[in-house]
Amino acid sequence: MIELAASFDEQFASISPLLLYFIIGAIVFVETGILLGFFLPGDSILFSAGLVAAAHGEVSIVVLVSVIFVAAFIS
Q: Quick check: helix, strand or coil at residue 28?
C-alpha cells in the first residue's frame, strides 16, 4: 500500500487531464461526503495531483483547484 501511495504522481502522469480532474473530484467527493470513504488516501492524492499539474503543461492548476473545491463543497 505504501508503494502505491508513493507512486501516485507516476500513475497520474500518463492519463488525460479530463480523466485526472474527474478522478480527483470523485475521490475528494467520496472521501468528504460519504462516511465509507475515510480509507481513501486523499491527502497524498491531492499532493500528487499538484505535482502532476506542476510538471505537465496540459493540466491546469486553476481547473484542478476548482474541481477539488467544488467536490468538497458539494459533498
A: helix
Measuring CA to CA, which residue among 19, 11, 23, 9 is closest to residue 53?
9
3-state secondary structure of 75: coil
List the alpha helices (DSSP H) in 1-75: 2-6, 8-12, 17-33, 42-55, 61-74
Q: Are 31 and 37 in contact (CB under 8 A)?
A: yes
Question: Terminal CA-to-CA distance of the chain, rounded, Å?
Answer: 26
The residue assigned the cell 474541481 is 67
Q: Please state the pTM of the whole predicted model.
A: 0.74
pLDDT by residue (tens digit) across 34-65? 777 666 676 777 877 887 787 777 888 899 88
